[in-house]
Amino acid sequence: MNRRLLTKLLVGLAIFSPFTMDMKLAMASEQAQVTHAEVPSQIEFRVRMRKSDWTRDRGMKIKLVDVCNDTRCPADVQCLSVGNAQVILCFQVGTRSKIITLNTNKSPNTVVISGMKGRVGLPSAYVVKLNSLSPTPMAGKKIEYSLYTATLIIENAV
């Protein structure tokens, strides 16, 4: 038998042998446990308009899709009411996506998102709260959509 072919065959057997697979699973489990220990229970996360970003330690992708009905009180005006803005977000966890609407000053401003069930080291759900929306409106000035940034607080659900 050709030496090169024999080497490939032996390497292939070593890679796919049950012992090696068990070792790989054990190593992956250890890495996941270490990652879980390092994941803080709460993070602040900023996402810009029409940009997708990964929460690396949560396995979640978030996109700020739109800001609707921005009636927040301009910073340079005294208002009777603080107003409200609706923020539309798309959450992707694994292969599942969910579109949600959160408000700056009305309910709901918090939602529970399912995590990746069965994924070692990650919670099965998250509480997501809209903490703020920037920029703050100014009297007589329209905010360009590309400037909107939502700040979210993401917590592990208990």
Overall mean confidence score, pLDDT: 75
Unreliable stretches (pLDDT < 50, length at least 5) are 9-37
Overall CATH architecture of the largest domain: Sandwich
Structural class designation: alpha+beta
With helices defined by DSSP (H or I, 4 residues minimum), what is the helix count? 2
CATH class wording of the largest domain? Mainly Beta
Number of strands: 8
Shape: elongated
C-alpha-based Rg, rounded: 23 Å
Strand arrangement in the largest pleated sheet? 1-8-7-6
According to CATH, the fold-level topology of the largest domain is: Tick-borne Encephalitis virus Glycoprotein, domain 1
Strand fraction = 35-45%
Biggest beta-sheet profile: 4 strands, antiparallel
| Straight-line distance between termini | 59 Å
Share of residues in helices: 10-25%
The string of secondary-structure elements, in order, is: HHEEEEEEEE
Count of all domains: 2
